[in-house]
Automatic annotation (TrEMBL):
Residues 151-165 have a biased composition (Basic and acidic residues). Pfam families: DPBB_1, SPOR. The lineage of its organism: Bacteria, Pseudomonadati, Bacteroidota, Saprospiria, Saprospirales. Belongs to the RlpA family. Keywords: Cell wall biogenesis/degradation, Lipoprotein, Lyase, Signal. This is Probable endolytic peptidoglycan transglycosylase RlpA. The keyword Transport does not apply. It comes from Flavilitoribacter nigricans (strain ATCC 23147 / DSM 23189 / NBRC 102662 / NCIMB 1420 / SS-2) (Lewinella nigricans).
Amino acid sequence: MKAITFLFLIPVFLLTVNHLNAQEEEFGLASYYSDDYHGRPTAYGDYYDKDKLTAAHKKYPYGTKIKVTRLDNNKSVTVTVTDKGPYIKGRVVDLSRRAAESIGLVADGVAQVKVELVSRSNRQTDVASNTNVRREPTRPTAYDFTEPEQEAPKAREVTAVKRETPTTTTTTTKPATETAKSPTTTAAKPAATKEATPGEIKFKLVQQDYNQYGLYKIVLQKPEQRGFGVQIASLSSYENVLKQVADLQAKWFDNILISAEKTGQAPVYKVILGPFVDEKTAENYQSSLSKKYKIKGFVVNLEEIEY
């Protein structure tokens, strides 16, 4: 009788384990591969194909199927893990271009998503057995608006130094050749002008180094007042609002909303993370905030806020 009971409990246990695995969820930023990586080997030895529904994930092994749902428009796609990554802090998954297009990620570059386990891989493949495949220390990263602008000024600075040095030496030792070297001097001036163009001014993300006094770039956008959010703070001063935003940026949040509301004589500024398309998604996000970042909050309906 005991043997029969034991055999009966085995399938029940396995079904329970599979059900728990299927409920695994992860929240964070999603990005997608640069087209420059098309045709190159992944960490597992496959070749990346931008037209297939694939992804890179740090935790799930090769062949695992995961569902990626964008939180602001509720679009989702199921992809197969074929690579390790992403390697940029704050991001949880890199999608192929086709997968990114299916959830509207190409235009935005990055977005907050929920990653759910669909099915685990049966293949016993590990990165350690394929370490000879990847010879490049770093692969072309997923789509990032800031990377080209960060590298370009360095290249121009080196060029400008190389051009100015021969001109100075020639002027000191061989005055007769100044006319011949004038094109070099002329070429150096445009390089200096490019360094001063406003489009190439570098910006640093404000994090824990926020100070009450200083120069900051502020971009205000007014989203549609719909959907749900997770309110995490209610503040009464501008300075505290900016400090709260800096603290959230330090944790790589980019879905920060500020609701300025009238309450008597002075306004109140509510810090809300969102928006999310439905209340259930917002509740799951709230639970993730509490577990991962120890941030307490509650779900609010953005359409019910009165101004």
